[in-house]
Amino acid sequence: MILPDDPKYAVKKVHVYVREIVDNELGFKQVSLSCPAKTKVYLFVSNEKMIVGCLVAESIKQAFRVLSEPGAVPSSGQDALQHHRAWRCSTEPEPAICGISRIWVFGPKRRKGIARHMVDTVRSTFMYGCYLSTNEIAFSDPTPDGKLFATKYCQTPNFLVYNFIYNN
């Protein structure tokens, strides 16, 4: 975990890494962190000493619940297409503590539990002495794969989201 108070060279290196590799793969072009002083960066380092996962978390106050499609009945044939569709979220804010603005795993290492492990770590370390529930964390504008991950991780398609660019 890299904190804002860590040595400047470490913070700078992580932010350059995040912007050049993670942001590029996730499709964030020239988007800086909304409040670097409230940001924690988690890196997953493999046994081969390679960074294969990165999660950027920040303090937030509110988030919005993703709404289910009216009349949508999940079926195995539609699941593959369902997470690529546009989605809606509530206009009523809900309290939240931790926003996950980015979560990325190196392609060949995906589907091995790395993202789940990183989110579990965030939930247990983000706020000292507290284990956050899935109703206290939110994901920023997830990609289709991110939406699928958040749905499985939170065990509901109605997980919380927030906009990391305009977060207060």
UniProtKB/TrEMBL annotation:
Residues 94-162 form the N-acetyltransferase ESCO acetyl-transferase domain. One of its GO terms (molecular function) is protein-lysine-acetyltransferase activity. InterPro entries: ESCO_Acetyltransf_dom. One of its GO terms (biological process) is mitotic sister chromatid cohesion. Pfam families: Acetyltransf_13. GO terms for cellular component: chromatin; nucleus. This is N-acetyltransferase ESCO acetyl-transferase domain-containing protein.
